[in-house]
């Protein structure tokens, strides 16, 4: 671990080292960095007091070319590490993004603890595998995934892909038994908080789900990793990063008359990408609702167009269904539906994604927006930071952290709740957009006569008709409430929640342990 001529002092004597030697290296770097940092400060002080001090060898600027800090490592090659299981790369720049996602420790394929940063690095991809032994589709898919990663590690791109198992098993014994079959990393089963955060962050509605992220930045690549590795088992399209949306949408479409329509002709319009299929009963229910809103907006001269992305099983089914639609469609079987579904992480139909004229997403839940606004009054349905709680927000209640101010229904209290939450909700949205992340908390006002509010109040065993503010997180089965708080004090209370200062209560689910994480359901 000592300097050797012109070589980087960080370079080990052999091409591979074990984790114990890596820890020794980390301690040596930290010690040397502290000494040089002290030298910086002392020499600077001496040079200010005595300008001639450089003659004594205290020249502040006469320091080693490379200091043992993260900035130098970016200019040197990474260290190759052999964990006796798989060849990985330790990349020394800060890996805060991955630690924020998984915590500081994972279980490695040898079932021992390993630092999270070991799986990170530039050019790499991490697959987050949400699965459970009790789930039949999971047990069917896992062997294929194991075969895929074993073949990958024997190929030319070995070390560029790592998988992390996130368990939805009901107990630690089931997790350990299932994990023993996997040559992956895993989130420790005891870390249920991170499990819930990951489920919520990536909107995991069913398992098995494979989410792919950039290992250097932690940014999402796709939530459709399961489909991607099935279609591209050799990794020819690695790292599977999505193309720009205009390129994915394509240049031409067909209308109801079978004529070709160009993307350029849609300039300036709000576009709804409608993922649907004739065989799907909920789709057949929603399509007439969308049709009525579409017709009204077109009659009003609003710049709105819909593009049908078919999930039908064959050309005949597509033709039959498309005859009922007055809007455009992608050509059946040309692959764009699958590409767009991957781009937006579509996990079920019907789904309506609404984008603006600049191809920026307005909402990925256009179905809910249109169901709540059958007259199209709120077109183009831009996101509202504060809403009245109703049935259409059920998905958000299940998948996200929600702050709900339950009122007694009086005009005065509804106004106070809005005044207390509106600025907080606006600030939450602005911060999330600035950071390019999903917002953590969604804000609602509850009316005591709404069926969903009544159900939530009963579910949490709250006193009816009593003003109460609640933060509810179904993914971690926890909730927090306050009965004696003024609207002006809400901001501090919510800040205390973010900082972990509030004591949680647990949502009780019969037959399961409280606080055990949100139990996702198998997909179909």
What does this structure look like?
With 524 residues, the protein is α/β, with parallel strands linked by helices. Helices cover 35% and strands 19% of the residues. The protein has 16 helices and 24 strands. The chain has helices at residues 19-49, 70-73, 96-102, 136-153, 172-179, 192-201, 225-231, 245-249, 281-299, 315-322, 336-344, 366-372, 394-399, 411-435, 451-459, 490-498; strands spanning 79-82, 87-90, 105-107, 113-115, 125-131, 161-167, 185-186, 206-207, 209-214, 220-222, 252-254, 260-262, 270-276, 304-310, 328-329, 351-355, 361-363, 386-388, 401-406, 441-446, 468-473, 478-482, 505-506, 521-522. The strands form seven sheets. It has a six-stranded mixed sheet with strand order 18-20-19-21-22-23. The protein has a five-stranded mixed sheet with strand order 7-6-5-9-10. 33% of the residues are buried.
